[in-house]
Design goal:
Distance between the termini: 61 Å
Shape: elongated
Helix content: over 70%
CATH class of the largest domain: Mainly Alpha
CATH architecture of the largest domain: Orthogonal Bundle
Radius of gyration: 19 Å
Low-confidence stretches: none
Number of strands: 0
Mean pLDDT: 84
C-alpha cells in the first residue's frame, strides 16, 4: 500500500510553487524546469498534486496576499455595507488594496490566468470562473442587503466586477494607474446615486 503524501511537504511545495509562478508567470511553465528549481522531480509534483493546473490553482489559493482570490476575506460579514455610501467606501478600499504598489507585481499573473482560461478553458477556466463567481456572489449579497431585487443585484454586481477587472488590466499594459484610479472614482460617482433607488 503506497504511503500517503506528507501534508507538511505538500504545503512547503505549494508555497514554493506559488513564489515560482509569481516570479516566472504561466506562459512557459513546464513541470521539469519547475521541479528542478524546487529541488524535486516532475514525478514528485504529479504525485502530490495530480496535474500542473491543479497545483497552480492550489498554490495561488494559498497566497494570503492574493489580490484577486480573497474576495470574502475583504469583507467582514458583520460589517457588510448597509447603505450606498458604505458600499462605495468598500469598493474604494478594495481598489486601493488591489492597485497598491506592493500588489502590482502579482497582478500580471492573474492577467495571464485570464488569458490562459480563454485559450485553455479545460485547464485554467475553473480558476477564473471561481474568481469571478466569488467576487460577483459577494457583491450580489451586498446589493441584496441594500434591498435590491435579485435580478438587479446580479446586474449591478456584474457591472462592478467587470469594471474593476478592466480597470486593473489596462495599467498593467501602460503603467497609468492614475488614469484607472480617476476612472474608478468617476464610475462610482455615476453608479452610487442609482444604488439609492432600490
Amino acid at each position: 500500500m503506497p504511503r500517503p503524501p506528507d501534508p507538511a511537504k505538500r504545503r512547503d511545495l505549494l508555497n514554493r510553487v506559488r513564489e515560482y509562478v509569481i516570479r516566472n508567470g504561466l506562459a512557459d511553465l513546464s513541470l521539469r524546469p519547475l521541479a528542478r528549481a524546487l529541488g524535486t522531480s516532475d514525478r514528485m509534483l504529479l504525485y502530490y498534486f495530480g496535474t500542473k493546473e491543479r497545483m497552480v490553482a492550489e498554490a495561488l489559493a494559498l497566497d494570503e496576499r492574493r489580490p484577486l482570490l480573497r474576495a470574502r476575506d475583504l469583507l467582514d460579514p458583520t460589517a457588510s455595507p448597509k447603505n450606498p455610501a458604505e458600499l462605495r467606501r468598500f469598493v474604494e478600499q478594495t481598489w486601493q488594496q488591489l492597485s497598491a504598489p506592493n500588489m502590482r507585481a502579482r497582478l500580471p499573473l492573474y492577467l495571464e490566468i485570464m488569458t490562459a482560461s480563454l485559450l485553455h478553458p479545460d485547464r485554467y477556466g475553473p480558476v477564473m470562473r471561481d474568481v469571478l463567481t466569488e467576487w460577483t456572489g459577494l457583491l450580489i449579497s451586498v446589493f441584496r442587503g441594500l434591498g435590491m431585487a435579485e435580478a438587479r443585484a446580479r446586474t449591478e454586481a456584474a457591472l462592478l466586477v467587470d469594471a474593476l477587472f478592466g480597470l486593473l488590466t489596462a495599467p498593467l499594459a501602460d503603467g497609468d494607474w492614475d488614469r484607472s484610479d480617476a476612472a474608478l472614482h468617476t464610475l462610482l460617482d455615476r453608479l452610487e446615486p442609482g444604488w439609492h433607488n432600490t
